[in-house]
Specification:
By secondary structure, this protein is α+β, with helices and mostly antiparallel strands. It contains 5 helices and 5 strands. Strands 1-2-3-4-5 form a 5-stranded mixed β-sheet. It is globular and about 35 Å long. The N terminus is likely disordered.
């Protein structure tokens, strides 16, 4: 019984820890050229050490990867789909977001 109580107390304390960013970087459309996958001109890419990548532009924060999306609602983040460009070459698809995601994940290291 004491072990269960300790586990519950530990989990409760971990859930109350504020999110700390591992790193951030300003990124812009001019850096990526035709490969820029977003409809905004730029913003700040952030990584939270457990692999959560977010992008902030015009006062709004967007969840970039699945790990961030799983926490989007509780943190008030929007879905990246709102600003993710359609791929004009292949209807029904989006521009490859991997370069932005990879840069975001590198900020956690």
């Amino acid at each position: 019984m004491k072990i269960k109580l300790c586990v519950v107390a530990t989990l409760a304390s971990l859930l109350s820890i504020p999110i700390a960013y591992g790193g951030s970087a300003n990124i812009t459309e001019s850096e990526y050229g035709q490969k820029w996958p977003l409809t905004v001109a730029g913003g700040t890419l952030n990584c939270i050490p457990i692999g959560i990548v977010t992008f902030t532009s015009n006062g709004k924060t967007y969840a970039v990867n699945g790990t961030a999306m799983s926490r989007a609602r509780q943190n008030g983040w929007r879905e990246i789909d709102e600003i993710w460009k359609d791929n004009p070459s292949i209807p029904g698809t989006k521009i490859n977001i991997s370069p932005v995601l990879d840069k975001g994940l590198s900020l956690c290291k």
